[in-house]
């Protein structure tokens, strides 16, 4: 698997619906064999970008390349893509077999070859017993498998998924997610996957592109996105419960906010460390230390517990630190209760600092 | 304590169980079925009079008791209406008009539905520049009174040498069916999931491929609705028939009028009734056969199926 070659390239893509600019000068390179997730809240343009790559929407400006070919004006069927939709979009009057072979018949693939490919896809997805049934007689999970199979038989380079798991119940979604991951490891195709579910994004992706307002806010591995968010939007979007954001000042080697003074010696600045600047510090709930761990760090504060949420695996605590609200994640067996005053510590080497005005990472 | 606080009998273990008994002759039922019965009789009485009159001979009709059932059942008026009644110089009954109507009906229905369904499909799924404007113009067409278009169409048909022929009338019916049928089909195709259309495009099906192999099989109900609308509409048409055809090519409705309204000789009420019933037979059969499908189709078109 050559990770350097680009499978899909999008160059300066613009898409306008009348006056509404849905995509603006968007650039993205997707590597060969990569699992790329487009993540964002609704209306951010992620599905629109996918539809542009598929050729289902005519772009206003810019270019799209797939495997080095300029496919900007090409028909969807000539782009070497397969697509899976949220609503499955199976042809209701055809059997599963008919659904799988429809695209191949349109492409005038010889009959023997069609049978071979349908059999292979059915085997990979374990849907052989369903081949003679109609979509109406299938469960949601089975339907989505058939929809994936329809992309599979086309033997394409690039798979496009438009929120494929959103219509399934929670249990099935988790199962199919693992299956998709396995499928990707087995096929080694390029996959572009649109979702608004950050768990899906984190677990499936080689790289995640977080979108907002038709632009990519950050493109990186799940690790980078989670631990080194490039701006406040990404930092706040990823992670549940959300990252704690505290406004304050960088003064020398310290971050100062009311009632709080945090030494920044462990923090890796992108450029040179600013001597004095208005800034926002972002600390994930699990990086707020308690108990013995809190005692061992220099940056400490006392907080008052206000709400305790027991999740079983861990406990979410909402506390107040001066005028700020602080969310922290504690052990599932923790005995803290509302009204307690506890000492918390901050691991600033794992925090994120943002410029207060440009909202970009420092 | 048990004696003093005993609950009412209806709450005891051997109290009410299962479905609540209903009175068949409750006030609600009498009112409901009474009204329905009254309305049905009101609508069915004329039909009854027509049927019994058409089965009587003229002497019996002259007795004047129109509600009495026939004493002497005769099918003579039906035979006469179908094969012998005279209109103008032709004395071969309604059979000629029936033939003409069939020759007008079949191509008109087939053509208008074929064209309108493709129109609706294109307007719903293949939006082009100006498609909304085109659609609006088409819909406005449905609201223009027929009267304003009668004479221009006479001129147009004369220019293309179709005035007075069956094909001229077929053309008129096809064109006039276009607005409402296109609206019907467009709304139906719009209600089908868009992702299905996208999936078919990714699968490499073109305009006609998607129409015939994906859309058509999903649209049987709406085709049935369109067929019923067109069959009854075109069969019952009188105005266009009388204007754009000539005596040899008159449709059944026009011929019926000519039989019933002929001023010469004795008014043969039994023949008139039989002729009217014969003319109404086709829409009647269509409704009886497809009533269930019709209701289902209307519902399918109205809300997302």
UniProtKB/TrEMBL annotation, chain A:
GO MF annotations, alphabetized: ABC-type maltose transporter activity; ATP binding; ATP hydrolysis activity
Q: Which PROSITE patterns match?
A: ABC_TRANSPORTER_1, ABC_TRANSPORTER_2
Keyword match Transport: yes
**Superkingdom of this protein's organism:** Bacteria
Cite a single Pfam family from the UniProt record: ABC_tran
> For this UniProt entry, what's an example GO CC term?
ATP-binding cassette (ABC) transporter complex, substrate-binding subunit-containing
**Residue ranges occupied by any ABC transporter domain in the UniProt entry:** 8-238
Which UniProt keywords are present, listed alphabetically? ATP-binding, Cell inner membrane, Cell membrane, Membrane, Nucleotide-binding, Transport
* Similarity annotation: Belongs to the ABC transporter superfamily.
Listed name of the protein:
ABC transporter ATP-binding protein
Species annotation: Aliiroseovarius halocynthiae
């Amino acid at each position: 698997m050559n990770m350097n070659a680009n499978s899909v390239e999008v160059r300066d893509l613009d898409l306008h619906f009348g006056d509404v600019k849905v995509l603006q000068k968007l650039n993205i390179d997707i590597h060969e064999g990569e699992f790329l997730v487009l993540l964002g809240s609704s209306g951010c343009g992620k599905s629109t970008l996918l539809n542009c790559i598929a050729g289902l929407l005519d772009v206003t400006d810019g270019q799209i390349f797939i495997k080095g070919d300029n496919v900007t004006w090409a028909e969807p069927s000539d782009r070497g893509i397969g697509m899976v939709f949220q609503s499955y979009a199976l042809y209701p009057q055809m059997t599963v077999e008919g659904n799988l072979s429809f695209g191949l018949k349109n492409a005038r693939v010889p009959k023997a070859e069609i049978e071979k490919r349908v059999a292979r896809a059915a085997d990979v997805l374990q849907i052989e017993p369903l081949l003679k049934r109609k979509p109406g007689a299938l469960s949601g999970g089975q339907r989505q498998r058939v929809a994936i199979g329809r992309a599979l038989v086309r033997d394409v380079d690039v798979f496009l998924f438009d929120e494929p798991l959103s219509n399934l119940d929670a249990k099935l979604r988790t199962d199919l997610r693992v299956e998709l991951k396995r499928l990707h490891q087995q096929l080694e195709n390029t996959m572009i996957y649109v979702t608004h579910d950050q768990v899906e994004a984190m677990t499936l992706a080689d790289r995640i592109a977080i979108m907002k307002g038709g632009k990519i806010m950050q493109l990186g591995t799940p690790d980078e996105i989670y631990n080194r968010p490039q701006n406040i939007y990404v930092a706040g979007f990823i992670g549940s419960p959300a990252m704690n954001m505290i406004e304050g000042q960088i003064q020398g080697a310290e971050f100062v906010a009311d009632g709080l003074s945090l030494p920044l010696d462990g923090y890796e600045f992108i450029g040179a460390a600013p001597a004095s600047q208005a800034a926002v510090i972002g600390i994930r709930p699990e990086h707020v230390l308690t108990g013995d761990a809190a005692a061992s760090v220099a940056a400490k504060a006392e907080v008052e517990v206000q709400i305790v949420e027991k999740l079983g695996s861990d406990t979410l605590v909402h506390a107040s630190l001066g005028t700020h609200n602080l969310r922290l994640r504690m052990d599932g067996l923790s005995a803290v209760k509302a009204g307690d005053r506890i000492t918390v510590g901050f691991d600033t080497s794992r925090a994120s600092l943002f410029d207060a005005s440009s909202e970009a990472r420092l | 304590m048990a004696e003093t606080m005993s609950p009412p009998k209806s709450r005891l273990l051997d109290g009410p169980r299962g479905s609540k008994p209903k009175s068949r002759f409750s006030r609600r039922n009498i009112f409901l079925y009474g009204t329905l019965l009254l309305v049905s009789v009101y609508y069915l009485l004329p039909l009854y009079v027509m049927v019994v009159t058409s089965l009587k001979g003229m002497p019996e009709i002259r007795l004047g008791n129109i509600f009495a059932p026939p004493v002497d059942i005769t099918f003579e008026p039906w035979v006469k209406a179908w094969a012998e009644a005279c209109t103008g110089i032709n004395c071969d009954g309604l059979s000629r008009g029936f033939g003409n109507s069939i020759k007008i009906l079949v191509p008109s229905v087939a053509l208008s539905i074929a064209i309108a369904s493709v129109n609706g499909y294109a307007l719903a799924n293949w939006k082009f520049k100006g498609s909304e404007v085109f659609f609006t113009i088409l819909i406005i067409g449905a609201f223009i009174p027929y009267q304003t278009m009668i004479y221009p169409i006479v001129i147009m048909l004369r220019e293309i040498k179709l005035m007075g022929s069956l094909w001229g009338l077929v053309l008129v019916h096809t064109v006039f069916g276009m607005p409402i049928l296109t609206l019907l089909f467009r709304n139906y195709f719009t209600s089908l999931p868009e992702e299905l259309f996208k999936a078919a495009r990714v699968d490499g099906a073109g305009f006609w491929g998607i129409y015939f192999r994906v859309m058509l099989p999903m649209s049987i109900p709406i085709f049935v609705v369109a067929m019923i609308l067109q069959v009854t509409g075109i069969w019952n048409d009188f105005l266009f028939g009388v204007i754009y055809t000539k005596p040899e090519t008159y449709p059944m409705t026009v011929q019926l009028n000519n039989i019933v309204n002929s001023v010469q000789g004795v008014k043969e009420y039994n023949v008139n009734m039989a002729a009217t019933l014969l003319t109404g037979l086709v829409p009647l059969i269509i409704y009886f056969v497809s009533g269930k499908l019709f209701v289902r189709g209307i519902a399918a078109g109205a809300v997302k199926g």
